[in-house]
Structures are given as C-alpha cells and as structure tokens.
User: Fold these one by one.
Assistant:
Number 1:
Amino acid sequence: METKASHIDSSKNTLKQSVATAEVLWSTMKTGSEPAFKALYDTYIQDLFLYTSRITNNKELIEDSIQDLFVELWKSRENLPHVKSVKFYLFKRIKRKVIRKLIESRKLPLSRNILEDYDFEIVFSRETELINRQITQEKQQRLLKSLNKLTRRQKEAITLRFFDGLPNTEIAALLAMSPKSVRNLIYRAMITLKDEMSLVLLLSLFEL
C-alpha cells in the first residue's frame, strides 16, 4: 500500500516533471514551433480560465483575455523572456489583462494600482480537483463557504498555494507582497479556516 509520504513525494516529482516539460515547450515555442505553442495552450487554458473566473464571472471577457494573451505570445515569441515557471508568467500576464479589461468596461474604478481594485470569489467547477477526487457536494459547499469568508488577499493566496500549486515567492509577486508577508497571510487564513473546522479538509484535499 502506498503511504501518504510516498504519495506526497510522487506528487512533488510529477510537479517537477511538468514544470520541466513546460520549460521545454516554452523554449521550443520561442523558436517558432506551432505544435509547442498549441501544447502550451492546451496545458494551461483550463488553469487560466479557473484562475480568472475567481476575479470575474464574465465568461466572454475571460475568453477574450486568454485569446488575446496567446495571440500576443505567438506574435512576440522571439522576444519573450526565458522563464523558470511558465504557469506563473501566464498567471501574471492574464491577471493584469483581465483587470485592465474590467476597468475599460467600467466594472472597476480607475485607480493607480489596478491590481488592488478587484473582487476575488472562489468557485468550484467540474474541472477542479475536488470533483476529480469525488469529494461530496456537502464537503465542497462547506469548504467553499469557509474559504469565501476570508479576506480577498487571503482567498487569493490560499487558492494560489493549494489549488494552483504556486510557491510563496510567486504568490508574493502576483500579490505585490513580500514572501514573508505571504507566509503570514496564509498562516492567518489557515487559523481562520481552523476555526471554521475546514483546515483539515483543505489539507486532506491538497497535499502540497
């Protein structure tokens, strides 16, 4: 029987392999490979959609933003930077793009710091790990209710860490905070979830 420790080690190895594969695809795409570009799109389209759906429920705006992002990537492929984390790079660009579109549509107030004036609502969909692991509807709703009682920054940090698997350094860059502040933010959020009796459920679902 596979132990919990071996399962976690296996998950970490899988994550490392996927990151390495993404880096290869990214480098190959930069040379003009259409198959590599398509593979990157297929790999990250779902992650990008789920991430931005927490910022807005405007499906059309989300789809347009993702489409625009990949068109821009392809057109500027030769000048794209070398990235250690493709997922982080895409998250950073799509977040800024979606928020700018929300401002343009006047669904957000004009602000000097556009990355602070937005809502963040956690949603579960058929594509989430919860469904894939056959978690009961009751447990999903229990966890969802508890998560959405957190502050916006806490919700975003928790989901980026546990749902999206980003390290604190990348979460810090997305939230314009220091890694230490992110650690404290997640710690306070987990204390709140513990009070709501949801921390054990969260950690059991996402063994990161």
Number 2:
Amino acid sequence: MAKTEVILTHNIVGLGGESDQVKVAAGYARNYLFPQGFAIPVTGANKRRLESLKQRRAEREAHEFNAMNELSKSVSKLICVVKVKTGDDGKLFGTVTAGMIADELKHQFDIALDKKKIHLEAPIKSLGEHVVELRLHAEVKSTLKVRVESLTPLAAPAPAPVEEKPHTEKRGKRVEAEKTEAAPKAEKPVKAAKAK
C-alpha cells in the first residue's frame, strides 16, 4: 500500500493536529483529505506555509487555554439546577446525564459546553446536590455543583393517626346498654286471670 506525506491543515482525531506532517495512505489523502481541505501535499511551497500554520495553531491553543481557564473560574461558583420527573417517593424516572447538564448550562447560564467535557463517573440517580467534574481542556479541570430537583411535588408525610381509647365492652352488650339508656322499658301489661 502506497504511503504519502501530507501536512494537516485541521485537527483530525487519531491522525494529528494542525500543522503536523504525517504519512497516510495515498488513497486516503487523494480521496478524503485533499478534497475536504484537511491536508495539503508536502512540497517546497507548502513547507514554507508550514510555519504560518504552526503560528496559527499556537495562537489558537493559547486563546482556547485562556478561555477555558476563565470559564473554569466562573463555572465553579455556579449551581446548575436540573429538574426531573420523580415518583411519589422521590425516586427518579431515569437518570441525569452529561447531556442533560450541558443543556441546562446552555439554558440557564448561556454557557455552551460540549457534553464530552462533563465527566460523570456514573449517571446521577438521586435528588439533591452533586459535584460534577469538568474537563475543559487538557490542562484545565474544574467542578460544577448540580442540584437535582423534582418536577412533581413530594407528598407530605401523612399525619400520625390519633390513638383511640380501647373499648373494654363487647359490642353486643354495649348496644343493649345504649338501648336501655335511650328508652326505658315499657312495663308489660298484666293479664287478668280468666275466671272459671
């Protein structure tokens, strides 16, 4: 397989950064890198252009580093509130992911942050405050406080039942006792003895 040397004009994951001189397959360079403008062939004129590419790359990386440094300072003071659906007992339906946190940062604070820069050991599965690590740059790390709240209000705890006094009488006797108190017994008429 024929290899050719090219100078990259853009960062390409797994291949190299801007202004790197790399060897790639001739077909890959001819069919993908050159038409897309991601690379240029190594020639005398392009080697002179290499210095300007390196300078542009250094300026861009310094600007990116400074921007991420400022962002890390401001983000560490923020509390991002994520509202989720929960059951009556406060248990989440699903989990809070890095994508949801990135969306809320954009919505609440107008901070556009790639979800790949939000590092969660595992998705968040409970209500309350959590500390999330942000990997903003290779040399810049920060933390963000995330408060997970419920969209559905949690049910108030039921009041303790009022204790009733135990009944000492049996039901049957008690009913009879109430009847006798409510209406006095009518006396039975005395039947006259039949005369013989």
